[in-house]
Design a protein that fits this description.
binds zinc ion; 2 domains
């Protein structure tokens, strides 16, 4: 199984997860043109995309979906509330969706995929856990609270994409409106660098080899801060062997 992050920020999110020739896109939050450019640059074959799986209905995760589906006729996997919300917001026909229940696994090619609920201010947001006979991958962004129920999936991962959205000091010192600060740092907002480190400290197992730090805020975070916070956590755990990449 191979994971290629294509875009990760509040401006657009998309990831390619592939195994045995099948590619699954996780979210489609950037324009088709930009998606195609990145796929060419990063060696992802869009013609091999077998399905899109959606974490939640926010536009930074589904903004490019409608145009994408006009060119690539593939099924979109989402839970019912997310599918209904996207259909209402974007005009995508409900027949484009294959709906699953959170916690119930489904298969695309060789990948077994399970959606787990995440606390975030969307219709019914989820993260994903991917499994092949050889490898596992945890995908968790847009997480307001570092819940144990999420950590238990992280504990089974070889590779993880984990949100490290903001630095709390930078967020509260920023000139963003108070209501927005409360939303971002709230229980259904986004994970701070410290909260991401806390989740890894509590749940990362010996099998975890690589972490992508994802969905960084442009204004209220810096790649160096996110990296330093997680590196310090891994050092405390004696796990400097884990490869860290900031997206
Ligand atoms: Zn997002
Ligand atoms: Zn979101």
């Amino acid at each position: 199984m191979k994971v290629v992050p294509l875009a990760s920020s509040s401006k657009g999110n998309a990831y390619a997860v592939s195994a045995g020739g099948d590619v699954v896109l996780v979210d489609c939050g950037l324009s088709c043109r930009r998606l195609r450019e990145r796929c060419v640059r990063l060696g992802v074959d869009l013609d091999s995309v077998a399905a899109v799986v959606i974490t939640h209905d926010h536009s930074d995760h589904v903004g490019g979906l409608r145009v994408f589906l006009g060119r690539y006729d593939v099924p979109v996997y989402a839970n019912l509330m997310t599918a209904e919300k996207i259909a209402r917001d974007t005009g995508i026909d409900e027949s484009a969706f294959v709906c699953f229940e959170n916690g119930q696994s489904f298969e695309i090619g060789r990948m077994r995929i399970t959606a787990f609920p995440t606390p975030h201010d969307a219709a019914d947001p989820v993260g994903y856990f991917f499994e092949t006979p050889k490898r596992t991958y945890f995908h968790g962004t847009d997480i307001g609270t570092p819940l144990d129920s999420i950590g238990r999936y992280l504990a089974r991962a070889d590779v993880a994409t984990l949100e490290s959205n903001h630095d709390s000091v930078l967020l509260h010192g920023s000139d963003r409106p108070e209501s927005l600060k409360r939303r971002i740092s709230g229980p259904r907002g986004h994970l701070s660098n410290d909260e991401a480190a806390e989740l890894v400290g509590k749940f990362a197992s010996g099998r975890l080899k690589k972490i992508f730090l994802a969905h960084l805020s442009g204004e209220c975070n810096a790649p160096r801060l996110a990296l330093d916070t997680m590196s310090a956590q891994l050092a405390r755990m004696g796990r400097e062997d884990i490869e860290l990449t900031v997206l």
